Amino acid sequence: MAILQILEFPDPRLRKVAAPVTVFDENLKVLIEDLFETMYGAEGIGLAATQVNVHQRALVIDVSENKDSPLVFINPEYEVIDAELAEYDEGCLSVPGFYETVARPRIIRVSAQDTQGNQFQREAGELLATCIQHEVDHLVGKLFVDYLSTLKRQRIRYKLQKEQQKSA
Ligand code: GNR
Ligand code: NI
Prior knowledge:
Elements: H1 26-41, E1 46-48, E2 58-61, E3 71-90, E4 100-113, E5 119-124, H2 126-139, H3 150-167
Antiparallel strand pairs: 1-2, 2-3, 3-4, 4-5
The structure holds ligand GNR and nickel (II) ion (NI).
Residues 92-94, 134, 138 line the site of nickel (II) ion.
């Protein structure tokens, strides 16, 4: 197991579109384990492979209180079941320190595969629905800051770039 480095906005690698997973092998199991270790280590509730510079359609989530409900989604696709919007204060491990309200469809139905390649479906609402949409966005190079005004996004980019220069 390994803790992987998380890319930070505005790193252009966060804009890459992930390719479908076609091989369900040991490498994939190791990637999923590393995503969980990295996510739990950073106290996140989700992590997409894109964020650790792996451009494959894989993500992990655990929205449970006790961090004991790991969820894996390989090649996820979702349809909106209830398009009424729900607002959450969103954060992102790739946009550290910033939290902004984002409105997204409140109920979705996800189709995905597990680590062994078995197809499954589940309906999601509340924070899980928001988190799945946030993670699937990562797989197509989209970030929650893209839903904010240009002014807010530019302010966030400026502040993060200043931080990154200090630590570089
Ligand atoms: O840890 C995270 N918290 C969070 C809160 C509200 C909506 C989405 C998220 S996902 C985020 C972890 C992350 O960056 N996943 O990509
Ligand atoms: Ni994120």
